[in-house]
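ok trying this again, last paste got cut off
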Amino acid sequence: MIITESRPKRVLIASSHSLFGNGLQHLLEQRWGADVLIVGLVSTTEQAAEALREHEPDLVVVDYDDETLNRDEFLARFMEFKGTLRIVLLSLENDKDGAEAIIYDRRTMQAERIDDWMEMEIPVSNKDRE
């Protein structure tokens, strides 16, 4: 019998607001325990780009409401990054439906699978229906 241990998901948090970054770190560690490893808390786009190269995280959570982070530049750096990576732009501003998150998922797949991926059902939010 071969037992393989999976490594923890590596998470980078980008926010200049310490309450956001530290709070999210605590929440993730409390909820996922040893299955998550926070590889960094960064507060600028430059620090985030450096951490992407250095730590190769599986997931990056970006404070969408943080005006000190240049989202356009950050997403441009995301497009340059090689490998599989997910980015969540998380807004803590609430409306009647609650807080929102924008998810970018970068992955590589075989060309013949693109048709299946394009036909995948995408959930529609209540806002989109109005």
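PB: full thing came through this time. The longest helix spans residues 18-32.
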